[in-house]
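User: Can you predict the 3D structure for this chain?
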Amino acid sequence: MPHPIHILERYWNHTSFRPLQEDIINAVLENNDTFVLLPTGGGKSICFQIPALIKDGICIVISPLIALMKDQVNRLKEKGIKAMAITSGISYSELDTRLDNCIYGNYKFLYLSPERLQQDIVQQRISQMNVNLIAVDEAHCISQWGNDFRPAYKNIGLLRELQPSANVIALTATAKPKVVEDTMDALDFIAPKLFKASFKRPNISYQVLHSEDKLYGLEQQLKLHKGASIIYVRSRKACVEVHNYLEGKAFRSTFFHGGIPTKDKQQRLEQWMHNQVDIIVATTAFGMGIDKPDVKTVIHINLPESLESYYQEAGRAGRNDDNAYAILLTNASDEQALKNQFIKSLPSIDEIKLVYRKLCNFFQISYGEGELTTHRFNFSDFCKAYDFKSNKTYNTLQLLDRNSIIKLSQQFNYKTKLQFIVSNSGLFSYLDTHKQYGHLVKTILRTSGGIFEHQLAINLTLIADKSATDEKQVITMLRQLQQDGIVEFLFSNTDSEIIFLQPREDEKTINRIRHVVEQQQQLKQAQVNAVLEYIGNTSDCKQSQLLKYFGERPDEDCGICSVCVTTQDSSHNISDKNIREHIISVLKTEVKNSRQLVEELPYKRERVLEVLKQLLEHDIVIMASANTYKLKHR
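Assistant: Here is the predicted structure, written as structure tokens:
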């Protein structure tokens, strides 16, 4: 049996392991059931890949993330290791062939989603394989108390029946103690070995900074902390807008989101990875499986939905152990925006029942029927047919998907797509002689950032509503613009596919998942509250707050977060009273915005904004026009 270090050198070109990796690998090689809790960047995949390569047979890897599965399979193939992922969209005959290859083709890794384990053919073939290890990635998904609970993960226990001699390794980056215990119980661990790295990242300065003008705040932080940066935003449109703003300020920037063609994604990632650009603006899905050690700064412009996701995203900074910064920009409107997106958009049980019943009616599925039937699905038409609000309806469909009532596949090939293929000046020159298209074009430009640079999926219903035009007329006009060489327009009547996984039983169907749904919604409320408490707590060390959240007892304050720095500044330099008096003195003569106050006063930015907030709360200072401040009784 080769030594693990020889496998590491041969395939990964490293001569030493990271902390805990070798101990974990040895525990797995000794056939122990093993739970691994390593923070982002800790090198979890090596912990199951190396023992799987050493042992005879194939390793089955369960993962909920198709993109991550494909990325790991591609990396293994590049090393000359035989690996495959079975994802959605393949025919029965192809599935049959791939599973045969896993039995007879000397493959070392088979990546599966938990939903695949429900198929009889998959279970039958797994029972015939020489399985040397079962690896459960994102293992927290198996616990109903975990972030991103997926009931389909309960199917993983079936693997222990199909392959009773194979040991299991469960891996995750973020899990509270209750989740760890619940996960090991669900996977029927026997005498488990638990490896848990500290959540402490002593080189990262966690900062919560109040900024009414977030773009300006972003600019200041990037000037202050030069180096490779990730800017996290919530939407594709914001990706483009923030990138354009930074380019206009002479920063070397690019952007990355799911709507960009694969070739462009790879090119932009390479530019950032090799420091040809310093900054990548991205949606929060970016970063999984990407190990760039020299990220200096991770900045969130929007509040995260949970501290679990925030810790993972912030943890992409400073993996080389150099000083790094995880900065969360926040302002007065953030709390309500967070609640609107993640709490108010949660459907009630009655709303779930209504959407499910209407969905069955939409496809004319009779009571007791519909199991495993597939339907092309136009989400906009469905919402319009029953006057449903799109945000809450989409969340309901996602919830039905996560609980294995339906399978909702986003078929981006079917989406209606649009791109302007003339220059900005060429477009407006055309509109000078074709004024009838002006209102429609301007509506599209307002709702679709980056539509000159890329082919974007568009919502025809939204565009029709905002331009006060009939949807059929919008399609007619876009087709004419295509004929005139102004746009490239790919029209489709459907944007996704739905598979009904269970027969229609209306209330009975939903009542079976009622307890899980209610528990998950309570968890989501608790997670949002934890985020709000984190940004609102200005007295406790930020790193200590995170450690306590994950069940770890901090031994000391970090000394470098926004709270620690402000506390040191407050105790060693000047009091809030002095800063208050200085702000009042300035505002006696002229109204100012927060940026002007920060630039004019000789104190740390965080102290000025905190004292300004106190003055607002005590009604000494009030907001004037254009986000400026003035004394109430000036």
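The longest helix spans residues 514-536. The chain has a mean pLDDT of 88.
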